[in-house]
Design goal:
alpha/beta, Purple Acid Phosphatase, chain A, domain 2, six-stranded mixed β-sheet, five-stranded mixed β-sheet, 5 helices
């Protein structure tokens, strides 16, 4: 299964439109969207961002980010693509979603405690599932800010160490575009789509294993 992984659109419809032009070339079987669809805006803005993707006839699963408006998760549910605090089975692979971020110094719209994040994982995760999380796991390439600090979720990190999901797709930290591994778990932060970044992931759904990750740009 080929996964098109995107995150951190921050309302930039023009970049989404450019991406849709690439989809025929990419031929993904699934699009995973890891949040921050808008930049502190609500459902109307999110709908405009999502509209080009929804015309592609490619399945989409999405979580909201910490900068999405309070009504954005409701819109995602109405569109049938919302994955926050849910598990969806797609072509034999379970996918679990966590929207929002861990606690930040900035008091953004959607922030969760580490206990809340852990509870979502414990409730929904089955062995071999993919995790779609706006926030990255702590102490990886995917959560390092410009100063060098690691600001990701400790509970997500600990859960990965314990359960070893095959793939975690995340975002949130714009400068931390990367791939990394925690033991056998592949971590992918595609980088922000508002800067033209995205990722293509080849995932073997039978063996529940990542075969290849390409970090690329429009």
């Amino acid at each position: 299964m080929r996964i098109l992984a995107i995150t951190d659109v921050h309302g930039r419809v023009s970049e989404v439109e450019k991406l849709t032009e690439k989809v025929l070339e990419i031929e993904p079987g699934l699009i995973l969207l890891a949040g921050d669809i808008t930049h502190f805006s609500g459902r109307d803005s999110a709908r405009k961002v999502l509209k080009p993707l929804l015309t592609l006839n490619v399945p989409i699963l999405a979580v909201h980010g910490n900068c999405d408006g309070r009504d954005v998760p409701v819109l995602l549910e109405e569109l049938g693509i919302g994955l926050h605090n849910r598990r969806v089975k797609f072509k034999g692979t379970g996918i679990v979603g966590i929207g929002g971020s861990n606690i930040t110094p900035f008091n953004t719209v959607w922030e969760l405690t580490e206990d809340e994040m852990r509870a979502i994982l414990e409730k929904n995760y089955h062995d071999g599932d993919v995790v779609l999380s706006h926030t990255p796991p702590k102490d990886t390439r995917a959560d390092r800010v410009h100063s060098g600090l690691h600001v990701g979720s400790l509970s997500l990190r600990e859960f990965i160490e314990e359960r070893q999901p095959p793939l975690v797709v995340c975002g949130h930290i714009h400068e931390a575009r990367s791939t990394d591994k925690i033991s056998e778990t592949v971590i992918v932060n595609p980088g922000p789509l508002f800067k033209g970044y995205y990722s293509v992931i080849e995932f073997d759904e039978r063996e529940k294993k990542v075969r290849n990750v390409e970090l690329t740009r429009l």
